[in-house]
Amino acid sequence: MSSYCNLTVYKCAHKGLILPLINEYTWPVPARAGLYFVGLIWCFLGVAIVADVFMCAIEKITSKTRIVKVANPDNEKGYEEVEVKVWNDTVANLTLMALGSSAPEILLSCIEIIGNNFHSGELGPSTIVGSAAFNLLVIIGVCVMAIPSPDTRRIGAIKVFGITAFFSVFAYLWLIIILMWSSPNVVELWEAIVTFLFFPILVLLAYMADRDFCMGKKKAVADSGVELGFGNIDI
């Protein structure tokens, strides 16, 4: 009988980024499954706690306001103080809020890529694409079905919705181009740079659509309005 064990006959014998910590590949499969299940639940709880704190911090940042002075002849001081948001809602949703909701899968993919000598593994990219597909299809479907039958809802910022919807579909087409046509199964440096630049382009176009820049006649400023860096605030 051989004096050493052939690791190929054991399930999950290959060393991962962290686990196994000890040589437990000779243990019974039920024992190993229970051990890894407890570890998985522990990791999920940790991610949930961190994500909850992270999202609370982002909501605190994006809800920050400042006081501006608006001319008002009827007031004794000649002006009145108005509290306005510092962050534009569209920019906040596309940057910090999106980062907070997608932070777990992004970090997971980064850790796997770095630990795997910059080769994609079986978890990271699939998690990001699956999360994006879930947001695009499942969440939108649930939001539509949640509306009672006689009631209706309308999209307020239809221009912003159109831009974000276009980029949501274009992202999948761009992945097909760079992974199947341009350089099959390899992401080159220029492809990564162009892909990253699509994000500020999306934010800029969505912000311009939200403020109606170069997309039609600019809304008239009311007498009681104030012109700020983030657009017109009507009182």
Automatic annotation (TrEMBL):
Q: A Gene Ontology molecular-function term?
A: calcium:sodium antiporter activity
Task: Give the residue spans that cross the bilayer.
Answer: 35-58, 127-148, 160-183, 189-209
The alphabetical list of record keywords is: Antiport, Calcium, Calcium transport, Ion transport, Membrane, Transmembrane, Transmembrane helix, Transport
Its placement in the membrane is given as: Multi-pass membrane protein
Q: Which GO terms describe its biological process?
A: calcium ion import across plasma membrane
Question: Pfam families under this entry?
Answer: Na_Ca_ex
Q: Is-annotated flag, keyword Magnesium?
A: no
Q: What is this protein called?
A: Sodium/calcium exchanger membrane region domain-containing protein
Query: Which species is this UniProt entry from?
Result: Ridgeia piscesae (Tubeworm)
